[in-house]
Write a structure and sequence with these properties.
heterotrimer, A alpha+beta, B mainly alpha, C mainly alpha, B: mainly alpha, two-stranded antiparallel sheet, 1% strand, C: mainly alpha, MetI-like fold, two-stranded antiparallel ribbon, 16 helices, 4 strands
Chain lengths: 755, 345, 354
């Protein structure tokens, strides 16, 4: 009988092989099912809707994840959170249809801008109610903006308001507080120094001087500086010795006092590292800062944003004219919250004496991370992280209740499962990775293409009445990847940087200042094969980016000078480099080895690195770029520690404005320019252009200013902007009415309905 | 009718078979010899053996079956471009083409090398992954099994041999490790090790070893305890043979064979565990020739199987046949070893 | 019997201690920075603050000290309030889920328990039934078919099998959906009219008299149960078959036959109960492993159980969540093991006497 067993095993294997080979023959089966399904739901042959949903009141969204950082509009700075916020909260103004930089009234019926461009007055729509029934007042609006500014925090989007209200370069309210603290401390130091009798050296008097200063400083700045430790009364300390020697040698009293002042300043430096943003994100120190200073700052904010409840207006006064101010308040961080509700849920009560306790709050500690009370068209009825959330229509919405009754967004991490949900019609919309679009394309029966000139989608055309999906094609993106070079790679003889090989230019590594060489950067820029990226990864649905500004914003010019793929020019640039190998040979003869890092799981980033490495090896086999994937946390840490020699730096714009692109990549306070170690003189040049550009309100004049920035960015080959992939999104064909604005963090359900 | 015993021992000859003992039997010992012969007589185990020998040959001759691209790491599957969509069986190979193997022209009569089994997501050649992945499968399967076996045997032997409180403590440690939730514990350890070691085979192997040896130690301990009671061990004790000699010369060789059998079953399981962890995102660098990964490339396309069948079917069947080979062999071994089946085959 | 139970109970703290040490030990392989998540919820934006945090929370301390602090928590140097401390039920805050770990477990575990309860019958009973049939028809067609079936079953990667099931029964036939419940019913159960007595959806549905929701919940569990069954039947089949074969060869069975009892009575009344003893152990292990969550099955069918959440936390190195999940799983498994052991002692007199 054992034979039977073997025979059957063989049969099973054979049948599996057979079914494998026979599979294409059964290819039609699932498609037939889809067709039958369509026939079932449309029993008539009428030309009217060929496709209809089973349940028109509920929209189901199969997302790859439900991971909501926070529902606090002042803190949320990710698209997943922003998507809910935009549907449950309202802003003063809103995007005009699919336009990225044109606005229509929402909570504000109208607004005026003063001739100097610094004062904005908004007239509010009367009779707007929050979800809990409270009436929205002008005070609520002013409070929401004040709360955001004072809450700040580097993880929040508030830097977009901090700059217009506090002045260019101020990223956080902490910078304002710090400046005031410095000023107060300076005055205290002056008073103390003036009181010292420098004619005779008295150790006890000096000790007292420093101790007094330390005490005064602690009271003002919030955190303790220990005089004994930083400068000190310890006679062995070099600083005090120097001071004594200096005092002995000093000619007059003024010189002596100056020396003491220097000593005190250096004590201060030792305490906060001389960093003006020392208070940033420091939630323990902020409440301890001198209350007078804190009150001062709050009053300044409250004077800048004033509500007139009787007239129903809110007036905002900026520190300087600000080109992109309206775009900034149209995003979710401009949402209006209910002051009474916030205060009753352990939030800030609007007083100038308590704000410091809420400064820099993080999502985990924020009471408004999981609850909402907006004026928007939907209310959040449940939120289960990593599972799903549901939105229900708000019947009291001031513009009329939305057409959809319920929204269910589900976390479905497996693409195969999401795809099955779309084919079964159980999901109305789904997250589709670019890599898997072809499977969805096979089900498309309706095509909508974007008209770049008109700035909107053309009317959709039905290509196959029986297929269930609609595709949207061709809309330009608002996000871009840039290859950034690290001009000053961190490397330390004690712990050599593992990503730069030998750390020397000997063919087996690079020097830490390798990318400070202009020719090297140019060569890398010429060596990136944009066409392969566009054709292979994006299947032709992308165009090469010519600079940081995106199409449609001031500063974008189609003919901006840019680098394109040219192996000969790449080789020339390498040959032109004056870098010398360790043995005196040129860079071209020596070659190099460097690692290019990407975050694990990001296939596009990996592919970009492989493309670059491939062309460099083609130019000269001695140019070795190795590709290494790191987990996200390690990747970020390595990037912040300036260890990564060459990296992909992605950005998604907050507002459709060139400032939002140049700031992170080139300014002195930018996130990426810092990680790239751009030299100070270069960032200063950019800063000058940028502050000119952002304070100008006339778009035509702004375009001219940003042209200079484009030229500088190209001349210095600061980075390589890659490609602009155009949209390719799918919906069930019964989903109607959607407004597709690229700046929406997700779906805006208010206009949508189902057939 | 009963026969009375008589003087000549012809009757005894009938009752006790007098057969010749060959060198193999002498070498292996009667018990192990019986098992070996039993294995070669079972059709199921022969099928298993054939499958495994087939895979061994593929692993050995991988460089001849499909040579690696010049200068590239042979364990990295060559990519033909970067398009995400899998390309069907027999599509032309455009970029990053490896040298055409010797058999190709003879079999097909063509010169241009193609994707014999198609390409998977990201244009990784499936045939290359399947062939070179055989080496990875053997390497990981054998390494993990041997390591767990060694650890388990040493641990179990020490525990059983010394007995007493040490045995008690050592077995409690085994209890603790066994209570940890299986694949999750391995997953955690592998995930924690990955940032330290980097994406490679090592973290997963370490994790599977760390949480895989306990059952062996339990089995070997039980076997040793039972062998200890056998007459020949008693006899050895009586005539004053040293304890350590008894353990290494008499107890272990007789107790270890059943454990080895269990281990052979585990080789297939190791490969499956690798595939499972690969699916969850823990494992080798993207593009490493590992069946689990090649199969994971298929995850996004399985629901469109009518078009992309090859991306699942080839690596899937390879994996199933490999695991099945070990399972058939192990199953047959188990039957042969089962004392209740003794003398039946 | 009582001594046996007392001995097992005494072992529980030892096992708990051991399990926590092992899990915490694994986490100690991570850098102090990554472990700072145990005490502070937000990752410091300012890199310069890190050394201070590491010192403040003693993340460089020797293992036993850090283990102790993980157990009892640490006082916040500023506010003085206790942070962490699993002995006080503070499992911490998961960064990847943006939720306290306790909430996450509360959300997920009832689903796992629900699945386990309904999976027991098909997974275990059918497996045993197959094994008995194979033994009764030893070397017959049923036996051989069952064995081939089981070998193929153990050779199949779960995720491939699961995705194939999904393609067949959902995308093509549209019989069974992935997820936990259909959208309409999800809304109903989240509304005030629906009482959550047990937080197990199937039982709550019955208690609320909503038979339609009960059926819907069962329908969503069909594919996960089918997948779990297929991969575990093989083991049950093997164990039951050999145990049954052994029992059938025993003398008392021969005696029973000789007495002239009906063959079905001999098999099912005399032989089967005794053959079940090793199967009970296996069944216990199976239930325990189901309670620990089934990572891959949950992922493929989007079933919101505890396994997929734990796997996700592990892969993204969410230290707090990993420790929380592993600890919770360990607790559940220790308790379940204890129950199984005691039940086993009740079933098999040899155990409690030895």
């Amino acid at each position: 009988m054992r034979k039977l067993f073997v025979v059957m095993s063989v049969l099973i294997v054979a049948s599996m092989l057979l079914s494998a080979c026979g599979a294409p023959a059964t290819a039609a089966a699932p498609q037939t099912i889809i067709q039958t399904q369509v026939v079932v739901v449309t029993p008539t042959t009428a030309p009217a809707p060929a496709i209809a949903s089973k349940d028109t009141t509920t929209l189901t969204y199969a997302d790859s994840d439900v991971s909501i950082d926070t529902l606090d509009p002042a803190l949320a700075y990710d698209t997943a959170s922003g998507e809910i916020i935009q549907n449950v909260y309202d802003t003063l103004i809103f995007y005009d249809g699919s336009q990225a930089a044109k606005f229509v009234p929402l909570l504000a019926d109208s607004w005026t801008i003063s001739p100097d461009g610094k004062t904005y007055t908004f007239k509010l729509h009367p009779g707007v109610k929050f979800h809990n029934g409270d009436a929205m007042t002008a005070s609520d609006v002013a409070y929401s903006f004040q709360r955001g500014l004072l809450q700040s925090g580097s993880a929040s989007p508030q830097w977009l308001f901090a700059e217009p209200f506090f002045g260019v370069g101020n990223q956080d309210v902490a910078a304002v507080v710090s400046a005031k603290v410095s000023k107060a401390v300076d005055a205290q130091a002056d008073t103390l120094v003036a009181a010292v009798d420098v004619t005779k050296f008295d150790a006890a008097a000096y000790t007292k001087l420093f101790t007094d200063f330390a005490a005064a400083y602690t009271k003002t700045a919030g955190y303790a500086v220990d005089a004994a430790k930083t400068l000190g009364t310890d006679p062995n300390k070099k600083a005090i010795d120097d001071l004594v020697k200096g005092l002995a040698a000093a000619k007059d009293e003024a010189a002596k006092k100056a020396l003491i002042k220097t000593a005190i300043t250096s004590m201060l430096g030792a305490a906060d590292g001389g960093d003006p943003t020392a208070l940033q994100d420091d939630r323990t120190t902020m409440p301890k800062v001198d209350p007078a200073i804190l009150k001062d700052v709050a009053d300044m904010v409250m004077k800048a944003i004033v509500a007139d409840d009787a007239a129903g207006t809110v007036t905002m006064t900026l520190a300087q004219p600000w080109g992109p101010f309206l775009p900034s308040i149209a995003q979710t961080w401009g949402s209006v919250m209910d002051k009474k509700w916030v205060a009753s849920n352990k939030g800030w009560d609007g007083s100038d004496a308590t704000w410091q306790n809420f400064y820099g709050v993080v999502s985990a500690d924020d009471p408004f991370s999981a609850i909402e009370n907006g004026t928007g068209p939907f209310t959040l009825t449940s939120l289960k992280q990593q599972e799903q959330y549901t939105l229900d229509a708000f019947p009291g919405y001031f513009k009329g209740a939305p057409k959809l009754q319920h929204i269910i967004a589900k976390a479905v991490p497996e693409w195969g499962t999401r795809f099955a949900m779309m084919t079964a019609g159980d999901a109305d919309v789904a997250t589709v990775p670019a890599a898997n679009r072809s499977q969805m394309d096979a089900l498309v029966g309706e095509k909508c293409t974007y008209d770049t000139a008109a700035g909107a989608y053309k009317p959709c055309e039905v290509t196959d009445a029986n297929k269930p999906l609609r595709v949207y094609l061709g809309q330009p993106p608002i996000a871009m990847d840039v290859i950034n070079f690290n001009w000053k790679i961190a490397s330390d003889p004690k712990s050599p940087n593992q990503y730069i090989g030998s750390g020397k230019l000997d063919g087996n590594g690079i020097t830490p200042d390798f990318f400070a060489d202009l020719n090297v950067r140019k060569a890398f820029a010429y060596c990136f094969d944009f066409d392969t990226l566009i054709n292979d990864v994006y299947k032709g649905e992308a165009i090469q980016a010519t600079g940081l500004p995106l199409p449609g914003m001031p500063g974008f010019f189609a003919d901006t000078p840019h680098y394109s793929f040219d192996l000969a020019k790449c080789a020339d640039a390498f040959k032109a480099s004056t870098l010398m190998g360790a043995d005196g040979k040129s860079l071209w003869d020596t070659g190099f080895r460097v690692q290019m890092l990407y975050n694990q799981g990001n296939q596009t980033a990996q592919t970009m690195a492989e493309i670059l490495a491939g062309s460099l090896a083609k130019v000269n086999p001695k140019f070795k770029v190795e590709i290494l994937g790191l987990p996200w946390a390690s990747y970020l840490a390595a990037q912040r520690a300036h260890l990564i020699p060459i990296m992909r730096a992605g950005w998604q714009e907050d507002i459709h404005d060139p400032h939002n692109w140049y700031q992170p990549y080139t300014s002195s306070g930018g996130a990426y320019s810092g990680r790239a170690g751009l030299p100070k003189d270069l960032t200063a040049q950019f800063d000058a252009i940028l502050s000119k550009g952002v304070t100008e309100t006339d778009p035509a004049k702004r375009a001219v200013i940003y042209k200079d920035a484009n030229q500088l960015y190209y001349d210095q080959a600061v980075g390589v902007p890659l490609v602009l992939p155009t949209s390719h999104g799918f919906r069930q064909r019964w989903v109607m009415g959607e407004v597709l604005n690229p700046l929406f963090p997700g779906f805006h359900y208010y206009e949508m309905y189902k057939q | 009718m009963t026969t009375a015993p008589s003087g000549d021992n012809s009757l005894l000859k009938d009752t006790i078979s007098m057969r010749k003992i060959g060198w193999l039997e002498r070498f292996l010992g009667p018990e192990n010899y019986r098992i070996t012969v039993g294995l070669l007589k079972t059709p199921a185990s022969i099928l298993g053996l054939v499958l495994i020998i087939f895979f061994v040959l593929i692993a050995i001759f991988a460089p001849l079956i499909i040579p690696p691209v010049d200068g590239a790491d042979p364990y990295t599957i060559p990519r033909d471009g970067f398009i995400s969509d899998p390309q069907p069986v027999g599509s032309a190979w455009k970029k990053n083409v490896p040298p055409v193997p010797f058999w190709y022209k003879a079999v097909t009569g063509k010169d241009a090398w193609v994707h014999v089994m198609g390409t998977s997501e990201g244009q990784y050649d499936i045939f290359y992954g399947v062939v070179w992945g055989t080496r990875t499968a053997f390497y990981t399967g054998l390494m993990v099994t041997i390591a767990t076996l060694l650890m388990g045997v040493i641990y179990g032997a020490v525990s059983a041999y010394y007995g007493g409180w040490l045995d008690n403590v050592m077995m409690r440690i085994v209890d603790i490790l066994l209570i940890l939730p299986g694949i999750l514990a391995a997953l955690i350890l592998a995930a924690v090790l990955t940032p330290k070691i980097g994406k490679s085979l090592i973290p997963t192997m370490t994790a599977l070893i760390a949480f895989g040896w306990m059952s062996y130690s339990r089995i070997i301990r039980g076997d040793i305890l039972s062998v200890k009671e056998r007459d020949y061990i008693m006899a050895a004790r009586v005539i004053g043979v040293k304890d350590s000699r008894i353990l290494f010369r008499h107890i272990l060789p007789n107790a270890i064979f059943p454990t080895l059998v269990l281990a052979s079953l585990a080789i297939g399981d190791v490969v499956l565990s690798f595939a499972a962890l690969s699916f969850l995102g823990i494992g080798t660098q993207v593009g490493y020739a590992d069946w689990g990964q090649v199969l994971s490339f298929a995850r996004n396309w399985i629901t469109s199987l009518n078009t992309y069948w090859y991306i699942v079917v080839f690596p899937g069947i390879t994996l199933i046949l490999f695991v099945m080979g070990w399972n058939l062999l192990g199953d047959a071994l188990r039957d042969v070893l089962d004392p209740r089946m003794r003398g039946r085959s | 019997m009582t001594t046996f139970i007392i001995r097992r109970l005494l072992l529980v703290p030892v096992l708990l201690f051991g399990v926590t040490v092992v899990i915490f030990g694994m986490m100690m392989l991570l850098s102090p920075t990554e472990r700072s998540a145990l005490y502070i919820r937000d990752f410091p934006k300012n890199e310069a603050a890190l050394p201070g945090i590491i010192k403040q929370y003693g993340l460089d301390d020797p293992f036993y000290l850090q283990y102790w602090h993980w157990m009892v928590g640490r006082a916040d140097p500023v506010s003085g309030e206790r942070k962490g401390g699993i002995l006080f039920g503070d499992f911490g805050f998961s960064r990847t889920a943006s939720e306290p770990v306790v909430t996450l477990i509360k959300d997920r575990f009832p689903n796992t328990l629900d699945l386990t309860i309904w999976a027991v019958a098909p997974v275990i009973l059918v497996g045993i039934w197959l094994g008995v049939q194979a033994a009764v028809h030893h070397n017959g067609i049923i036996d051989q078919a069952a064995r081939i079936f089981s070998i193929v079953g153990t050779s199949f990667p779960t995720f491939v099998f699961g995705l194939l099931m999904l393609m067949l029964f959902y995308a093509t036939l549209h019989w069974f959906q992935p997820g936990r419940l259909s959208d309409v019913n999800l809304r109903i159960i989240s509304q005030p009219g629906f009482n959550h007595y047990t937080s197990l959806i199937t039982f709550d549905a019955l208690l609320n008299g909503r038979f339609d929701i009960f059926l819907d919940a069962i329908r969503h569990m069909v594919l996960p149960i089918l997948t779990l069954s297929y991969i575990s039947w093989a083991t049950f089949l093997r164990v039951t078959r050999s145990s049954m074969l052994e029992t059938l060869r025993m003398e008392y069975v021969t005696t029973a036959r000789a007495k002239g009892l009906k063959e079905s009575d001999v098999i099912y009344k005399h032989a089967q109960p005794n053959a079940m003893i090793p199967v009970v152990t296996l069944a216990g292990f199976q239930v325990i492993s189901l309670l620990g969550g089934v990572v891959i099955t949950e992922t493929v069918f989007n079933y919101p159980g505890i396994g997929s959440a734990a796997a996700r936390a592990a892969v993204s190195l969410d230290v707090v969540a990993v420790l929380g999940f592993a600890l919770f799983d360990g607790l559940i498994l220790i308790v379940a093991n204890l129950i199984v052991d005691i039940l086993y002692a009740v079933v098999d007199p040899r155990v409690r006497l030895s």
